Amino acid sequence: MKKFEKIASLVTGGMFLLTTTCFAVSRTVNAPNGLILREKASSSGKVIKTISDNEEVEILEKDGDWYKVKYNNDEGYVFAEYVNAEEEVEEAKEQKEEKDNTTENKKEETAVAEKNSNNKKAKSNFKIYIMPSVTSKTIGSIEKDQTVTVNYELNNWVNISAGDIQGWARKYFLDIDENKQEDKKEETDNSNTENANNEEQPDKETTTAENNEKKDESESKEDEKQNTSTTYKEEKTGYINASVSANVRKSASTSSDIVTILTKNTQVKILGEEGDFYKIQFQDYTGYIAKYLISDKAV
Questions:
Q1: Residues 72 and 114 placed together within one structural domain of the fold
Q2: Does the predicted TM-score (pTM) go above 0.90?
Q3: Torsion, CA 41, CA 45, CA 46, CA 51, rounded to 10
Q4: Fewer CB within 10 Å, N- or C-terminus of the chain?
């Protein structure tokens, strides 16, 4: 009887192992400004901590665009795009039938068709940035008539892939049909956070800078109705004091279109003010930015 119980226990244990998740080896974080570890696989998930660039994490499983990872003694979710995982984490399947192969082939054909529909030709030469901001690091360049793949869009920016490079470019450099824009679930991540001191890379629906402006949203309607515009006789110099980046908008309102995104400590010219916004200039860009995101000195 005891021998039978031992055999049954071994069989049960073997069946359990077959149904557990396969784990990949540890990989490194690829996010210059750090990557947020959240309690759930969502940009609205509670922040556990920020993992520094090049830190190692153990990938436990994949959940859509997110990885469940273990970092030191903490477990949570990070945006998969910013982890250098050479092998994806997949759930082990107990049975594989021929119809699975048929389903996979159909998925591959659909994926190829979708990828081809996202291939766009460059209208002129342009640079590829690591973040959707002209002040961020340049990681590559594209020549006129070269074809790239558009992964998703964020306001006036597009995330593209060209060979081994993936980054951000201004939308107007590509031949994109404005009537066929597609939305993609977010990030950023690229870059959405509830904690001003714990910013992550731009997510795929909003940017870090938009979170910095949340407290202005309740006042935006009043700003639109009654703003006193003042132009300075002498230009002033200011610096972006956001923890990562800040939005420059077309008009003095948080609901206005984004002209560009500037990173922390970028120097700008202050041309005037309107309500709770400064009118600023950076290179060829002119727009408005919330006053509390500008300081007299670099921080």
A1: no
A2: no
A3: 50
A4: N
pLDDT digits (tens, 9 = 90+) for 165-221: 999 998 888 887 654 444 444 444 444 444 444 444 454 444 555 555 554 554 444
Is the domain of 101 the same as that of 179? Answer: yes
CATH number at residue 167: 2.30.30.40
Please give the tally of structural domains in the chain. Answer: 3
Q: Identify whether residues 262 and 229 lie together within a single domain.
A: yes
The Cα–Cα gap between 262 and 245 comes to 5
Among 247, 254, 258, CA closest to 222: 254
Identify whether the C-beta of residue 154 lies closer than 8 Å to the C-beta of residue 166: no
Helix (H), strand (E) at residue 128: strand 126-129
Domain assignment present for 208: no
Q: Which residues contact 52 (CB under 8 A, 6 or more apart)?
A: 29, 34
Distance CA 198, CA 99 (A): 46
203 within some domain: no
User: Has residue 56 been placed in a domain?
Assistant: yes
Nearest to 173 by CA among 206, 141, 203: 141
Q: Amino acid identity, residue 292? A: Y
